[in-house]
Amino acid sequence: MNKNKVKQLREAIQSVINDSGIEDENQCKIRIGNGTYSDSNCTLKIEVSDVTDDGRVLTKEATDFKAYAKGLGLEPDTLGAVFESGGKEYIIAGLKPRSTKFPVVAIQVGTNDRYKFPVSVVQLRLSQVA
Fold this sequence. Notes:
By secondary structure, this protein is α+β, with helices and mostly antiparallel strands. It has 2 domains: about 5-50, no CATH class; about 60-130. The chain has 4 helices and 7 strands. It is globular and about 50 Å long.
């Protein structure tokens, strides 16, 4: 195994899950995450999250955002808010409370790539939107 092979396998597994209909059948979202590998095997993380009737995915990060945002100076209702940074738009997707430097998880609009931001940047960008 090597980094590229593990990446290809992860993307292939995610594609099979996306095409299978299992998420719709079970009203959930399945995401294949990062993992570890050695010369002969790999272990990947799988996250399964409920999806609400209005289509919101209740990831661990989203649940943690609601629980811990106030303590970091953010409003819990800003989950899902859009802000701009570096000329690109991001949607607040959650919080990683154990990450002290970059705890806010955001998804780039249009690409669905996940990025981490410091609280101070998100606070500043949200205040510019308001």
